[in-house]
Write a structure and sequence with these properties.
Blueprint lengths: L26 H10 L5 E4 L6 H8 L5 E10 L4 E7 L6 H8 L4 E3 L2 H8 L19 E6 L8 E3 L6 E5 L1 H10 L4 E4 L11
Parallel strand pairs: 2-6, 3-5, 5-8
Antiparallel strand pairs: 1-7, 2-3, 2-4, 6-7
Amino acid sequence: MTMTMTMVAPATTDASGEQPAEVPLSPAQLLELLDEKKCAYTLHHHVAVFTVNEAQQVEAAIPGAHCRNLFLRDHKGRMALLCLRNETRVDLKRLSLLLNMGRLSFGSPDRLWQHLGVRPGSVCPYAILNDRDEMVEIYLDASLFEADTVNFHPLENTMTLNTRPHDLKQFLEQTGRMTHILDFTPAAPQEVA
């Protein structure tokens, strides 16, 4: 079952500066869905953050493992959303082998909006609910499950949701999205001797 909630977004523009007709799933709708599925979470409001470095000041006040997300595509157009702990390092060349994909690059802002319905800086595992055509594979870092709680934006980078990793996985699967749990250690950059 794939969620198809939409709402009008009068103030949002896409990367070209044009106003789209609708936004797939809003943060408010996501929170309602989390409540409906009885997924426990704590919501934190903060200034907008766009990079891991900018997030460090915000993270100091929020307990749990802090995470980042990579939206990637290969030369054949296959797409992947990786949800990683901040400490998990990956090399794109080695990652392509691990994921059995072609040469990887970062998805463009337009592709990100088209498939996940979020802007750069707001990528998160919850955005997979906007992938109505199920074109994006989602991979959760196995090390997330070593933490008591994990932190991701709820579709907008002015908030952070803190939840248990198993609750995150269960929620995504309850909403119809298969998640892959993967040890990214084989994709770590090789140390130069």
